[in-house]
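One chain given next:
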Amino acid sequence: MTDWVRRALTRRLVKKGPRGKIEFQELANERLVYVVKFSLGMAGCLTVLEVTSIVFLHDWNHEIFAAITGLIGTVTGIIIGQKA
């Protein structure tokens, strides 16, 4: 598994059986992986847009920053909720 988003959303479970510990992985839903990838990509694009606004307009855009904050909070909530 070279996909780091899928690896981050995969649950690793250990259960005790009669012959010892059994380790297995519960893979993440494909739609969840795509939503997280899209959200991270959009957060990156919005960050570039904010930096461009600062460099060229010498002004901090509050609306773009609010969108970045919302997306990062959403992605963090998804990852924490999936791991629990």
In short: Residues 30-57 form the longest helix (28 residues). Residues 4-83 form one domain.
